[in-house]
Amino acid sequence: MRKFSFALIGLATLSGCNLAPPYRQPAPPVYDAYPVATSGGTRVATEIGWQSFFGDAQLKAYIAAALANNRDLAASVARIAQARAQYRIQNSERLPQVGVGASGTRTRTPIGSLGLGDTLNQGDTEVPDAFTASQYNVQVAVTSFELDFWGRVRNLSAAARGRYLATVEAERAFRLSLISDVAASYYAIRAGEEGISLAERTVLTRREALEIARLRLDAGVTSSVDYDQAAVLVTQAKTELADLRRSTEQQRNALLVLIGGPMTGELPRGRRIEDPGQFEPLDAGLPSLLLINRPDVLQAEQELRAANADIGAARAAFFPTISLTGNYGFASPDLGDLLKRSAQSWTFGALLNLPIFDGGRREAQLGQARARQEELVATYQRTVQNAFREVSDALVGRQRYREQIRAQEEAVAAYRRLAQTARDRYDNGISIYLEVLDAERNLFSAEQQLIQLRATALQNGVSLYTALGGGLRAQ
């Protein structure tokens, strides 16, 4: 028994040659540095967990709910479990499948059926009417176990492992995408709420102005043209208010799907979008960090490793496969003698298989594996390029949105002064109401645009955080 166990262990640990090509990481087709300034903080994204990155307590509550309840994320986690199970199944082929079996039989055979009745009846002794026989067996057996001289089984296991790790990175990429989507919807909702508040105040103010215009019209101080122009201002604000309410409600519907359903309990108070401290500033670092931090890049690399292993398995198919079977145990007609040394039994066998003609099937499988690897090399390089572009775009956005917001704030202040001047000129009879109409309309549009710019800048900041790989590993 001990010799048999040692033989199994020795066969299981045999390592032959590996026919897979050596893995070489493809050269990333990007610049060594980003085209814009990368320093905006002291830490990189992967050092900051999302709980520390975001400063809005209400947003963090929504993100936590999404990570716990999002249905697509649950499906992604289930795909990881499937891939892990498939890897374990394939990896089990590298070891012998050992089973223990036991059996016992007792057989009764009538003597007449044996043709021995006349012979046995010649004596004076009492003759039994049947023979009874027993047989007991206990054995340890190994089903067909392939000796992996060429690395075929080992490479199939490596390919399954690569695909499993790729699903892990895909799930991490989805988590980052989910955080980004929740934040984008949240900031859009906050901008919509502030825009609605501005539009409601504007409608109220313009209705008061319209009432004054009606009184002036009734008193014969102004013409119906001024009254109609005041009515246009009210209509413009009401139209914008209705549009903002529609888009904001639609964003709330989208957020509800992202977080997996209605929130329970009281939510923390949210920040206004112009408040400072919405999130921690980031240092982008060098593009080479993307190769080890971006989950989509790591996913593409794991899939490429799996394709490399598939080539090794396809090459090994051209060589013979050698399989072993065997069992060791005891057999005895007497249960009491079953485990005695004299009752030992064993059987060993080997099978050699080498296809001679398969119509080019193995060559086609090898060609397919090589083509798949070439495809994944291109996919990996394209993924790196896309990651570089996303970070570069977000860095440009971080710089330019700041400039744009400052300029828009100056524009709002100028439009506010212009509107007040136009109103004073009209009240003093210096200008017509059309000047007031244009000034009020431009001010309202500029204020709404400033709100949207601030929200877009916040969304861009979240995009930079996720484009750099986020901080899921820092939690």
Q: Keywords for this structure?
A:
four-stranded antiparallel beta sheet, alpha+beta, 475 residues, 4 strands
Radius of gyration: 39 Å
Total helical elements: 11
| Backbone shape | elongated
Number of beta-strand segments = 4
Detail the topology: elements first, then pairings.
Elements: H1 2-12, H2 50-53, H3 57-69, H4 71-91, E1 98-110, H5 117-120, E2 130-147, H6 152-218, H7 224-258, H8 290-293, H9 295-316, E3 321-332, E4 344-353, H10 361-427, H11 433-467
Antiparallel strand pairs: 1-2, 2-3, 3-4
Helix pairs in contact: 3-6, 4-6, 6-7, 6-9, 6-11, 7-11, 9-10, 10-11
How is this structure best described in words?
By secondary structure, the protein is of the alpha+beta class. Helix content is 60%, strand content 11%. It has a four-stranded antiparallel β-sheet, with helices on one face. It is elongated and about 145 Å long. The mean pLDDT is 85.
Write a compact overview of the structure shown:
Helix content is 60%, strand content 11%. The protein is of the alpha+beta class and 475 residues long. The chain has a four-stranded antiparallel β-sheet with strand order 1-2-3-4, covered by helices on one side.
